Amino acid sequence: MATPGPEPRRRTVGVVLAGGVGQRMGHDTPKQLLRIAGRTIIEHTLAVFEAAPEIDEIVVLMTPGFTAEVEDIVARRGFRKVAAVVEGGATRTESTWRALRALGTEECDVLLHDAVRPLVEPHVIAGCAEALRTRPAVVAAIPSSDTIMVAGPGEVVEEIPDRARLRRVQTPQGFRLSLVRDAYERALADPDFPSRPATDDCGVVLRYRPDVPIFIVPGSERNMKVTHPVDVTIAESLLRLVPAALPLPGPGALDGRTVVVFGDAGVAAVAGGCGADVHAFSRADVRVEDAAAVAEALARAAKDAGRVDHVVCGAPESPAEAVAVSHVGALNVAGAAEGYLRESRGHLLLRAPALPAGEPALEASVTGAVTALTEALARAWAPDGVRVNCLRPVRDLAAPRDAARAAAGVLLSDLTGQVIGVSADL
Ligand SMILES: Nc1ccn([C@@H]2O[C@H](COP(=O)(O)OP(=O)(O)OP(=O)(O)O)[C@@H](O)[C@H]2O)c(=O)n1
Ligand SMILES: C[C@](O)(CO)[C@H](O)COP(=O)(O)O
User: Fold this and answer.
1) Do 194 and 57 belong to one domain?
2) Over 191-233, what HEC string results?
3) What integer pLDDT is reported at residue 260 of this predicted model?
4) Each residue's pLDDT tens digit, 23-76
5) I want to staple 378 with a disulfide (CB 3.0 to 4.6 A). Which of 38, 47, 98, 354 is the partner?
6) Which residue in 270, 271, 245, 238 sits closest to 256, CA to CA?
């Protein structure tokens, strides 16, 4: 008799809970639609789930009246795993219950995640999904660095539990569908549940299926929940912290892409080495402060190649050219590239200069211009899927990053609105 093979892998569904109104944030629109680092919060979250190999399908629960906004994001970003956008309920648990109903009864693994935790890292999703293959219930959590106390009547300290045993609960929280459904059915049948609601799905399972152990998976400090206005500033800063190890593309990584480079032979060479169809214009060919010359060069490249996927504006070679290249030139290149990049949903990469010592005011002024332009364009072009980033030389960068290779890595990445530090050549 043949020995039975391993159990087939169950389908894993990511449920993104976005049904809240964001009362504590205090805006007119739900906080998951706020734009941070060039994209809406829910867009950041969906992008991580879409890219996670462990996730087969995504269901979004959205605030009633705002489902069209999410459908539009899904279509624009091409999130193919999103199978449904469903209206959420009046409470988080009601939104979860609606999600469970939408999933039907066929057994699967479900990872429930707060839409407003956009900084969830792939390894946390992978950790939860993998643990869920062999366990019926899992939750992401981290140790508490604060001492936590229990407040008694009259705001008097009643108890300080042993911190070593305390964990801060995050999402994803993962369950076998049949288990979490059963726990929710019991909760809904309990007349006491509405007066003592649970603040998360783990709480529902722990209360109504105490027979099932819930396994704790390491979450991460970055996986914060955007709840109060100050969290927007923190999340924005964290989203802009580009990992020191940007993926450095190898041969073939830019196959089929057209890269137009103004005045940056190093980036042109690396892009060509990665397989891109490179159209490079040196300073002798095109002076970027000449708007007509830039437009003509781009039109020529687009005609030859049929499309333009990436445009790079290099840094000035001397202080005398700094304003012409990094200020006027960057604006000219952006203006001429806009139409092509909208068509290809492409990428503009600007380079800030490193000027010799003795030019700190000039360097600060042109760097300010390039980085502000990057952020403004990233915001303005994000709705059309166009990314805009900037490479900025940093002296004494902790992890040295070669500019040309970093440039190719950025072109291939999903980043937008980022100012990425590279090693200064001076
Ligand atoms: N009826 C609800 C309430 C909340 N959530 C989602 O659950 C997550 C965590 O909830 P929270 O941070 O409390 O969001 P809000 O309920 O929107 O915030 P507030 O309590 O300040 O109104 C959020 O992604 C939120 O959209 C949901 O899907 N359905
Ligand atoms: C699920 C949760 O994020 C775990 O920390 C939290 O309980 C949600 O609480 P909220 O009040 O709905 O934000």
Assistant:
1) yes
2) CCHHHCCCCCHHHHHHHHCCCCCCEEEECCCCCCCCCCHHHHH
3) 98
4) 999 999 999 999 887 789 999 999 999 989 999 999 999 999 999 999 999 998
5) 38
6) 271
CATH number at residue 381: 3.40.50.720
Structural domain of 377: 258-422
Question: Does residue 310 belong to any structural domain of this protein?
Answer: yes
Is 0.80 topped by the overall pTM? no
pLDDT in tens, 77-130: 889 999 999 999 999 999 999 999 999 999 999 999 999 999 999 999 999 999
Q: Are strands 277-281 and 137-143 parallel, antiparallel or unpaired?
A: unpaired
Residue nearest to atom 3 of ligand 2 (CA): 170
Nearest-ligand number for the alpha carbon of 173 = 2
ipTM of the complex in this document: 0.98
In a domain? residue 390: yes
Strand partners, 167: 143
Choose among 295, 261, 298, 275: nearest CA to 407. 261
Give the distance (Å) from ligand 1 centre to CA of residue 22: 6
Residue ranges of the alpha helices (H) in 52-176?
67-77, 92-102, 122-134
- Tokens 């019926």 correspond to 136
Q: Which-ligand-closest: CA of 20? A: 1
pLDDT, tens digit (0-9, with 9 covering 90-100), for 196-254 = 999 999 999 999 999 999 999 999 999 999 999 999 999 988 887 766 667 778 889 99
Same domain? 341 vs 288? yes
